[in-house]
Task: inverse folding
């Protein structure tokens, strides 16, 4: 077996509390013995972090954003070009922003100095822009994971995304819905797109049957339009009007917090709904273990943004919390209606109330759904299996040994 090579993980922001899937993926790679660098293009503004962050052993490099002054940018590029012979060709033949070029030059020098043989970016936005530039400067292969906003949002430049897809050695995405969408829309450019689900460390998510739970309804996510929380508040008002005894906790922060709080007050839900703010993963897990039902009422936002396959759903299914969601993008690949959870029409508060009320009051149904949901997670969303598939993608991309097994169908 050849000596192991290093790969670089390229992220817009690291760490980020909302991206538990990235942290879990990095830790799984490390457990498998993968040698990694982590490159962050922006400084995090999070004030709370998951405890598991302390387990990461890979070195983290914060990439400076550089000056916006043209003369300073040129000076910095000249300095980098002295050791990157291909840089000027890329600068001349690129419409990239100066900041992206400067960061790509820094990453290019680092990957050459540190023996990086492949770069992997998360999200097809700025991290992939920089990864593609590094590829053009150094010849190092790159791949990226496409999620949702980077595919569907109205601000996505289709021509630019087409180039990223075409130039990548491989592209991973997190649902079959996404695979089908990208291959239909981008045809040959998306020929190397493949499915690898986000996974969970199942040792960290021990199952407890959902039949015997208090009547607590839980929602977790950023307070943004695509999460559908305004429809959840309407559903809570309907449940209360029916005399259902329950309490709802909403965990997370975001731009719609004040609007949602006003809606809570207008509906008279102050004693029924609690806004908990952002919480650590350990605290969210405890909330899930206590709740009878997790509501994930996703919708397609007015700017076309939507969720891919929310990690919070997978976590709840692993832990034994019954789930109600909507058939948005890849969600039905995890929540199979009437089998591993319940699905309702996006934006339909009455249907959402019916489904939540049914699960809040029917312990045997919860128990049946949650046991099947756990089996689904063990089969399709085990992070050890799924990150092995990712390492196989890396190996296929650059013909280097990452101590992985060949990609297995269905991973």
Result:
């Amino acid at each position: 077996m050849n000596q192991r090579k290093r790969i670089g993980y390229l992220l817009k922001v690291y760490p980020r509390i909302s991206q538990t899937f990235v942290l879990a993926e990095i830790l799984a790679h490390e457990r498998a013995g993968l040698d990694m660098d982590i490159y962050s293009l922006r400084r995090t503004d999070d004030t709370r972090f998951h405890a598991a962050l302390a387990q990461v052993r890979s070195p983290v490099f914060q990439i400076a954003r550089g000056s916006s002054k043209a003369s300073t940018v040129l000076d910095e590029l000249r300095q980098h070009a002295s050791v990157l012979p291909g840089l000027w060709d890329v600068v001349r033949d690129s419409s990239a922003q100066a900041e992206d070029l400067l960061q790509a030059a820094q990453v290019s020098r680092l990957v050459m100095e540190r023996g990086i043989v492949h770069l992997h970016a998360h999200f097809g936005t700025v991290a992939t822009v920089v990864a593609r530039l590094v590829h053009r400067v150094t010849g190092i292969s790159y791949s990226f994971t496409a999620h949702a906003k980077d595919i569907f949002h109205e601000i996505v430049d289709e021509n630019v995304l087409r180039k990223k897809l075409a130039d990548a050695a491989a592209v991973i995405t997190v649902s079959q819905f996404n695979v089908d969408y990208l291959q239909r829309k981008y045809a040959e450019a998306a020929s190397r797109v493949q499915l690898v689900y986000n996974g969970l460390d199942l040792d960290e998510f021990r199952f407890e049957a959902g039949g015997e739970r208090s009547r607590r309804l839980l929602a977790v996510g950023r307070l943004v339009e695509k999460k559908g929380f305004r429809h959840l508040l309407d559903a809570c008002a309907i449940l209360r009007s029916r005399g259902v005894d329950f309490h709802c906790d909403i965990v997370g922060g975001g731009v719609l917090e004040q609007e949602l709080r006003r809606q809570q007050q207008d509906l008279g839900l102050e004693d029924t709904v609690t806004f908990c703010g952002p919480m650590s993963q350990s605290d969210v897990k405890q909330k899930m273990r206590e709740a009878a039902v997790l509501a994930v009422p996703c919708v397609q936002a007015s700017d076309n943004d939507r969720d891919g396959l929310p990690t919070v759903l997978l976590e709840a299914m692993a832990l034994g919390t019954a789930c109600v969601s909507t058939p948005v993008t890849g969600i039905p690949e995890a929540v199979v209606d009437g089998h591993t959870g319940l699905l309702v029409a996006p934006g339909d508060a009455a249907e959402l109330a019916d489904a939540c009320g049914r699960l809040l009051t029917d312990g045997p149904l919860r128990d049946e759904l949650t046991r099947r949901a756990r089996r689904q997670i063990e089969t399709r969303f085990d992070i050890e299996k799924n990150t092995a598939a990712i390492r196989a993608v890396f190996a296929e991309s650059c013909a280097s040994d990452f101590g992985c097994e060949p990609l297995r169908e269905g991973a």
User: Anything to note?
Assistant: The longest helix spans residues 363-380. The first strand starts at residue 6 and ends at 13. The radius of gyration is 22 Å.
